[in-house]
Write a structure and sequence with these properties.
Length: 274
Amino acid sequence: DDTIDTIANKIYSKRIQIAPVGFEIDRVVIPAKGMKGKDFKIRKAEKVYLLVHNKKSEDKASAYADEIVRKLKAAKIKTEKVPCDWYNIDEITKKTRDLILKEKGNEIAINLASGSKNHAIALDRACMTFRDRTKIIPFYPEAKKWAAHTKVKDLTQLTTGVKAIKRIHTHRIIVPEEELIEALKLIHANSVIIPLAAGRRGITKKDLTKKIYGTSSKQNLTKLQRNITQKLMKTWRAVEPFKVGRSEYIAMTSEGEYLRYILQNEETSVPESA
């Protein structure tokens, strides 16, 4: 594996940062201009994606985003506002993951401190969804002063300055194989109301086998059980079986729906839009 120093100093086609917008300015702007940490560097960004609230009428931080854009423009750094519901951790996770996929091959630094707790949790979780994390650099810009009274124009920051910048290591989790992710997509797309199952939705094992292998032969049903459903049930708790009469159904659990939603776009693909 590459060391932190090696990763930070590699020449990539672009240097990208992703930063949620809360009531902070310095903790976005200063790292975007580049900083040296104790054991790694955050190089000056060429572009910063700013995660902003998707409901403008409820967004109390819009003026902060505008001020950040102004300051970064003065530093010749491009910006792009990415709207998402800052109360929805799953949506923030997926939006961040899609941005990382979009910028595949570039150095991508993730700011974990500039937004809310929901943002910090979601951004960290997004980093965990990748098999290859060598070019993803989560970091924490430590504030110089807290509860500051200093104002930027008419905006009061929660903190001022950046005392230090710290590398946050990405966690290692097991990401489901592509075959399993595709199976979850098929279950979601083809589920129907299961009779006598209190409104639960699912797909029959035979129909799922046909969708994946072409036929529902005994051999393919065994293959489905061994290669797909057992793994999704035991490892991921993503599906559960239902039997109604002689019909056997596979239903998605909430964990399965989460995996399908977050991993909708695979690492080998790039979404059409973030």
